[in-house]
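pls ignore typos typing on phone
S-adenosylmethionine + seq
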Amino acid sequence: MRPALVRAAIANAEAAGFEHSSGDATGRLLAVLAASKPGGRLGESGTGYGVGAAWLVAGMAAGARLTTVEWDVERARAARALFADDPRVTVLTGDWTALREHGPFDLLFCDGGGKRDDPDGVVGLLAPGGVLVLDDFVPATTWPPRYAGEVDVLRMRYLTHAQLTATEVQVAPDMAVVVGVRSVADGGGLGRNDSGT
Ligand SMILES: C[S@@+](CC[C@H](N)C(=O)[O-])C[C@H]1O[C@@H](n2cnc3c(N)ncnc32)[C@H](O)[C@@H]1O
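k done
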């Protein structure tokens, strides 16, 4: 079942010919994780037309807040209009680094800037115990994970990050999501030894 706001965001994206919105499987995971952070500060890098944000909103409690950022002016405008009646949601127009002013985050969906070019900066946006979500990975059956025959260096970067305890979750036959939790005071985490095994 798709919440009404998700349907509206999808309609806007389709009308604009935008094909990079999050799918339902990722969206449901986002809603579940949002529900786990009542009173939490939520963030999203790369709003698009607001599909992922609408899934986050579907799970958010009354006391939670979402800040999402999109550098494409038209997409940001459309998303801002979509959430205009919800004071919990702020849509920023600009580069993903604008999120630094609005964190640290208890849940961060990194779906735009930062994901590829600054993993440390992305992890740095998380509060201790904060959850990071990255999607659009092809499900892996090997360690290390491979994509098109090559070791998936980007996915490895997050799965073995020293400040994260992270794993890959297959949410659909063709879709895997990396979910990581930031260590508290850097005191633990699967990534801390980076043994490569
Ligand atoms: C995969 S789409 C986002 C989809 C959206 N999160 C959803 O769930 O439907 C990625 C978006 O990130 C935006 N983006 C890419 N780099 C960015 C950056 N450095 N700062 C802000 N937005 C960026 C793109 O313009 C694009 O709209």
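The helical segments are 4-16, 24-35, 51-59, 73-82, 119-123, 153-159. The longest helix spans residues 4-16. more later
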